[in-house]
Write a structure and sequence with these properties.
Elements: H1 3-14, E1 31-35, E2 43-49, E3 52-63, E4 74-81, H2 96-111, E5 121-123, E6 127-139, H3 144-158, E7 160-162, E8 176-179, E9 187-194, E10 197-200, H4 204-207, E11 212-218, E12 224-230, H5 237-263
Helix pairs in contact: 2-3, 3-5
Amino acid sequence: MTILQQNKQYITENIAKSRDDGRKHDQTREISIETGILGKAEGSARVQIGKTEVIVGVKVDIGTPFPDTPKSGVLMVNSEFSALASPEFENGPPREDSIELSRVVDRGIRESNTIAVEDLCIEPGEKVWMVFVDINITNHDGNLIDAAGMAAIAALMSAKVPKINEDGTVNRDGEYKGSLPVKDIPVPVSVGIINSTMIVDATKLEEQCIDSRITITTTKAGNYCAMQQAGSHETTEEQILKIGEIAQKNGKERRLIIEKSVKK
């Protein structure tokens, strides 16, 4: 048996009693958030949860609206898993887990109506603001979805809308017309289940042991706005209700950290 197999066996057999790093089952590792780290982006943030690190950059540009929504701006979320972040990642086309991460973060922002796309209209049917949220994984030690979700909203909250030059182009000289209209702070909280024991903020090794993972995104009001499950293990109604309570509690705590970081 390899050392990795031994570690996984130890975690699986002992998770009900204690976690390998001594944390409580519902405890998140130390969170660090820094905004305004990318000079060329309209908004940016770096989030560290333990050893996991994610950097998000927000770019704002002028584009053409979709034909079926002529008065709505465009929001797009993409993620990149750098090979430097983990031996498991490879350069090339987007991985399945990269696509999943983008969708979960995007869904939380959209369903909470954090960015009212109608407010991004410049000329109906002609010009709208397009907001690009680019997620970059720089170090992977578990719980990428939560780190990416927090980094995305922190970057959006710190983002500015550029002024438009007289010729209709975007001013890239650092002149802004105001902040991006952010109306909420959706925060995802992922809960892993190992042998019926629920844990928050799983490390990379713990994630290799989980039977299933449920991510619930909550708003400032504590309402659920998005939910996603991964894994084939059947989840009971009782477990889902408990995870919802955990998401509300941890989401509130993380939201305070985000708000403080953006105000600095």
